[in-house]
Amino acid sequence: MSSTVAPFPEGFLWGGATAANQIEGAYAEGGKGLSIQDVMPQGIMTPRAEGPTADNLKQVAIDFYHRYAQDIALFAEMGFRTFRFSIAWSRIFPRGDEAEPNEEGLAFYDRVLDECEKHGIEPLVTISHYETPLHLAEQYDGWVNRDLIGFYERYARVLFSRYGHRVTYWLTFNEINSVLHAPFMSGGISTPKDQLSASDLYQAVHHELVASALATKVAREVAPQAQVGCMILAMPAYPLSPDPDDVMAALTTDRTNLAFGDIHVRGEYPGYYLRRLREAGVELQITDEDRALLKEHTVDFVSFSYYVSICETADPAKRVVGQGNIFGGVPNPHLQASEWGWQIDPVGLRVVLNQFWDRWQKPLFIVENGLGAKDELVEVDGVRTVVDDYRIAYLNDHLVQVGEAIADGVDVMGYTTWGCIDLVSASTAQLSKRYGFIYVDRDDEGAGTLERYKKKSFDWYAEVIATDGASLRRA
Question: Strands 383-385 and 378-380, how do they pair?
């Protein structure tokens, strides 16, 4: 067997991924309103603040708002064919419920797209990436309120009208299934999680799903060449043992995430999901129009993030939850973990790709995958860099498995590494949890020059792209 990986298909979309709130900064510039991220100075793990605070690194982040041209040029130097970024909803509609958009915000993304076009980089745009306008969270309780469907439709229509001739690939919501675990960050729901009823939570889920279908409908009207995808958090669940009860526990957990793809692709709620609602005493308020939207406006492709797999068991005595995994699950005794406790499972990515392809028969797009680690800036031959062999090994091993899935017959559109340039972590709001090929000189206290330095992985990824994966090495 060859020690190298067969090249990926021609036209494979290699690139990197970011989110507005984690890179842009300029939180009060250009007419931008506040988003929920402006009151989450410590990330998802701590209670929200009353208002913006000076210790929120996202206020400046890595200053992409002013340095976008430099950063996109660096992406082009690596050979990016696509760049995934999100549009900050509160830059376009500062409160979220205005009748007219903010021109300054729209013009900023025009400039970002100009740079992408200049370098031949295909944009991949996320419409809503954990950036609900704060006003919608505080005055409407976020997606619990059906009014948000209309506000989101207006926002999406503006985006498709303004950028539809320039952007082919769109994602409606980032990790839409994460609202079950992080209702404020993912759904803009102000009601504290421990006080949020199951009925309100699942009604919020329904409203987001309908809004996603409605955005797909609008795209086909306004920008018929656009391709619209859903985006889900993929986290395969393995049974901790062959005990049939453990197998069933794993299946039940898997279905929690799979339901979101089932609804986006098949256009209706699966039976197992309806049973879950019945047993939780939830009776969704669903209109005939809702049903028609879901059924008639399914997605063109399925995108997902992949970082970890988990195990599940029916035995309460064995339910030791993984420390770094904010979405639960039992640690796998056969896997090692990152510095933040996220278990590393490259084969799990091949499992997910095959599972999703077999289930949905829709093109798949891996739009987040990467390793958060503490990097050390050093000098090598007079050049400041980071010798991040650990990141290279992580990405290499995951991409080998993507190649295996393609050989299995899975239709994979592309791969964008998460945090292709260092950014502020969503889970911990740290800059020390670095993912990028490009080191940004800023620390967790906000000190630093914001200068950019290429890590060792920068040239490694450039070679992977240039060879369409032929430079990847099997273990």
Answer: antiparallel
**pLDDT, the chain, mean:** 95
Residue 425 lies in a domain: yes
* Cβ contact 460:446 at 8 Å: no
Helices then strands, each counted (H, E), the chain = 14, 14
Q: What is the mean pLDDT of residues 173-186?
A: 95
Nearest to 330 by CA among 347, 340, 316: 316
Which positions are catalytic? 368
**What's 196's domain CATH number?**
3.20.20.80
User: Reduced to 3 states, what is the DSSP secondary structure of residue 227?
Assistant: strand
Domain annotation covers residue 440? yes
Beta-carbon contacts of 287 under 8 Å, excluding residues fewer than 6 positions away, are none
**Cβ atoms < 10 Å from Cβ of 216:** 26
In Å, how far from its chain's centre is CA 143?
18
Domain of 451 in residue numbering reads as 13-466
Q: Is the pLDDT of residue 350 over 90?
A: yes
Backbone angles phi and psi of 367, in degrees to 5: -110, 0
Model pTM above 0.90: yes
Query: How many independent structural domains does the chain possess?
Result: 1
- Do the domain assignments include residue 382? yes
Query: Residue 45 — very low, low, confident or very high, per pLDDT cuts 50/70/90?
Result: low
447: burial class by Cβ within 10 Å (0-12, 13-18, 19+)?
exposed
Is the pLDDT score of 103 beyond 50? yes
In a domain, 97, yes or no: yes
